[in-house]
Amino acid sequence: MATKNKIGQGILNIIFILLCIAAVSPFLLLLSSSLTDEETLLRAGYNFIPAKFSLQSYEYLMGSAGKITGGYGITVFVTLVGTVAGMFMTIMFAYPLSRKELPKRTFFSFFVFFTMLFTSPLDGNASTHLPVFSRPLSSRRFFPSLPIPCSSSSFPYAGN
């Protein structure tokens, strides 16, 4: 009995070690490729040990720090405003539905339920944000409209 348990533990340990290696190795390869010279990457491909050490990618990142912080600013804005707007829309729709005396209450409940059947919480990343940026006008004009898709879903959350 004890030998059988040790063999099972050994097999499980090997499986979990392999899973850990499979989970960590892409990050190690990414780190190694970021420390490798660009021409060496093009010529020799990706390796876990850099053939020619270079910090050029990190110099590029530090040079474009304004773009990166601007992108994070947009992400924080869409998340915060989309969450608040989505919760507001949900509360404003859910409270009247909770009242028994609301006329056409079953119709509105069915409307929300029906839309939940055919959309998923993960749906909408490209389909709701692409029309915002596919117009020929500047994307700065549409910046305030980015949280709108988050608030118009039957799944109220930011990141829709």
Quick take:
The protein is mainly alpha-helical and 160 residues long.
In helices, the fraction of residues equals 55-70%
What Rg, in angstroms, do the CA atoms define? 25 Å
N- and C-termini, Cα separation: 52 Å
Largest sheet: none
Uncertain runs are 129-134, 156-160
* Structural class by SSE content: mainly alpha
**pLDDT averaged over residues:** 78
Question: How would you characterize the overall build of this protein?
Answer:
This protein is an all-alpha fold. It folds into two domains: 2-62; 65-151, no CATH class. 68% of the residues lie in helices and 0% in strands. It is built from seven helices and no strands. It has helices spanning 2-34, 38-44, 56-63, 65-98, 105-118, 125-133, 148-151. It is flat, with a radius of gyration of 25 Å.
Which characteristics define this entry?
160 residues; mainly alpha; 7 helices; disordered C terminus
How would you summarize the topology of this molecule?
Layout: H1 2-34, H2 38-44, H3 56-63, H4 65-98, H5 105-118, H6 125-133, H7 148-151
